[in-house]
Model the fold of this input.
Amino acid sequence: MLDFLGNLKRTHYCGHLRANDADHHALVMGWVARRRDLGNLLFLDVRDRTGIVQVVFNKESEPVAHAKAEQARSEFVVAIEGHVVRRQKPNPEIGTGEVEIMASKLFILNNAKTPPFPIDEEINAAEETRLRYRYLDLRRPKPHKNIVLRHKIVLEIRKAMDEMGFLEVETPMLTRSTPEGARDYLVPSRVHHGQFYALPQSPQIFKQILMIGGLDRYFQIVKCFRDEDLRADRQPEFTQLDLEMSFPRQEDIFAVIENVMVRACGVAGVTVTGPFPHMLYKDAVRKYGSDKPDLRFGMELHEVTACFPDEAKQKLQIEGNVFAFAAPGAAGYSRKQLDELAERAKSVGARGAYFVKVAPEGATSAVEKLIGADNVQKLGALCAAKPGDLVVAVSAKQQVQGTEAAALVAGQLRLSLGDALKQIDRSQWKFLWITGFPLFEWSDTDKAWVSAQHPFTGIVDEDVEKLETAPWEVRSKGYDLVLNGYELGSGSIRIHRQDIQERLFKALGLSEEQLRKRFGFFIDALTYGTPPHGGIALGVDRIAMLLSGEKSLREVIAFPKTTAAQDLMADSPSDVDQVQLEQLGITIKGQ
Ligand code: ASP
Done:
């Protein structure tokens, strides 16, 4: 027989009880975390959001309560009344370890099936099982802690934005396509057969229109949707801190974000200070082989093309530049380890990987016959390699216009070797602004220049005239914020003039008709007095992931999707009734 909650009122949260609560009456509610039956004494650990408290049932003094406790099982929902007492043997492992509750009454409010995995701090259940039974997983301390931290971060962000005069404005979820470079999630319209809403890839157009609407400073903690292939640090629906401001200089936007990030880190106990350093995109690529460099360690790249004479280049089929770096202490790598490294280099796009081992008596290399002893020494010197280091040099398979392909390959090896050689100082928090991006990038799939960010990104004033003639030279007014090798988000000063926005769309190959059809309303809005404006969006899930020390976004999202874009608990996506399809005028092919 289950008990009713009736008029029972909780007096304390389980995890809050401390020594100074001793000798007080308490009524706690929660789940049975553990039961130990020692005959005369029966112990229940009771858990709620705040933690666990030990409850003791004494057969002699409280026979009724004790008998009832014998029926309690793991994850039963209970209310317990009793007296808080000091423990004879405190347990320093838990916050409530100095006390326990001597129970006088037990109410069993609900029972529970045996959970498919134990509700413990560390479990070895498969992630799929955890996600299928997410409600049980959420009872564990770690997911709990992550959700609490995320709440605190978001709350602090909201406070900071409000204090800086930003208004939180909601923008539509049922809208039309926003060009952020991903596929749209579409929602069929019942009222307008054959027509679709798109879920927003971002509120980009709406926030710019809010500036035209005179709102001056907008922000939103907002869900965005992108139908992309997923990775550990991507989700089909994700949350952004999205903001836009009128009449800003780039440094004004940076100052806003620095303030927000310093405060968000602060609630996670991480001390950082602004202003954050800046780096040009091309320097990031040449020095770190990445547009999101991890500055927690060195191992910087150096261009070493000059160490490869023409003849060697031909033999090794080297096309573009060669980039290299010194891997500290890796001169002792075995033949097998070097072969593995070369394989890894090839798998990320290298044509060749060349190694130089540096010893106190000089540098040696298998390519010495091809490039000569002097060049081997030079490779070591250019990378500032010390005795004991291994110089890793790579050339790249594909030469993409405007990029240093070999640097990008070397950048990936730098990251994996940096990790393997324990070079990354994990106590550091290295923020970085990247600026000076090109406006366009070449898309091999589309065989066309496409926007490197989105098509509303501002253009460096003196480059506007090259839009039609030399698009690859045009620089954008875009910027990215990077933390410890992760891109936290990007933004830009926007195009606010209608004539330039039209030229940009045309440079992207949109016909007058396409332009009107897709962006007519926005182009029109730009003609009614648009202030210069700019903004940025940061990934809230990513921020929460990094600040909670997790490696997967799924650990900081209450109901995440798998890498196959499924919600295993709610079992979505799913079939729908035939009636629903008919109302929408949709027939599924092949059914
Ligand atoms: N809408 C952009 C994005 O989602 C951010 C921005 O430009 O403000 O990446």
User: Anything to note?
Assistant: The CA atoms of residues 464 and 474 lie 7 Å apart. The longest helix spans residues 141-163. The first strand starts at residue 25 and ends at 37. DSSP finds 16 helices and 22 strands in the chain.
